[in-house]
Design a protein that fits this description.
Layout: H1 3-20, H2 25-36, H3 41-46, H4 57-90, H5 108-122, E1 126-127, E2 133-135, H6 136-139, E3 173-175, H7 180-189, E4 194-203, E5 215-225, H8 230-245, E6 251-258, E7 261-270, E8 287-296, H9 298-304, E9 312-319, H10 320-328, H11 341-344
Parallel strand pairs: 1-4
Antiparallel strand pairs: 2-3, 4-5, 5-9, 6-7, 7-8, 8-9
Helix pairs in contact: 1-4, 2-4, 5-10
Length: about 350
Amino acid sequence: MTDLVKEFQDALSQAKAALAAVNDMSALEECRVRFLGRKGLVPALMSQLGKVPQDQKPVVGKTINLVKQEIQQAFDDCGAKLKQDKEAADALDVTLPGRQRPIGHKHPISLVMDSAVAIFRRMGFVVADGPDIETVWNNFDALNSPQDHPSRTLEDTFYFDLDQHHWLDPAALMLRTHTSPVQIRTMKAQKPPVRIVCPGRCYRRDTPDATHGMSFHQIEGLYVDECVSLADLKGTLAAFAREMFGAHTKVRFRPHFFPFTEPSVECDASCFICAGKGCRVCKGTGWIEIAGAGMVNPAVFENVGYDPETTTGFAFGMGIERTAMIRYAISDLRLLYDNDLRFLRQF
């Protein structure tokens, strides 16, 4: 056996040892360049074949080719094994348990909105919707709101196109301050009976505090037919309160004034923080207002083309955020909009 054959056999041993340590395709390529590349060990040994005596060349050449093929086969086998291992790692193992994916859930405002809508639907109400940008006529004039009412001022309401319209112009555009314009649109579009609830977002220039915000949600209701009474209104709101808050929550009705209802009442729920003793959330009264309501003013019926002599009805409106505060014992309305996951994950 010539020295050259021994060197080839040593190269085979080195290649097998190096391939045993290879664990990815990049390492395999580095090893291939080291042994089989243009400047690798095997080509360098092949260049010495010319120094072998002429009578030994056939035997030495055959042996060297066999060793060279064995080295190449070792590289091919290693590459095939790495490819097979990678495919096996990427393959789907149907015997493994499913991966748990974190999923979201509804915001507490959406939860309360959906619950309120479901309660009123069980009473026979249907959902009506309308645009957030309204006309002054739909938002104020049709609802019998006087032009000197404080809620109509620039300090209380967001107006558009004031360069073209005065803020008292019925055609001026604004962000609705309540969802009552949906009631106006519905009554203009159909004759009695009307039994609707109008959930949606509203906007007012309020200073944010524990119970107020510039953007908030309301759900308003309207029932118009013949012989509708204040007792029907009180029964509807009392039934809603029992379903939404439970029997432990006290509810009271007290006289109030709204330009679009006559007579008018406010519906309060007992404070969930102090249990009626008085705190900063209820401003020391022991009660939190949840709804304003009353019998629809005959002037509103006239504005939409209904006969006030034969038509009666009631309307009510409540804040979803305040309802959520009572239902979930939330002490500050602003928590609902802070997007703090530690808070939101509790619902």
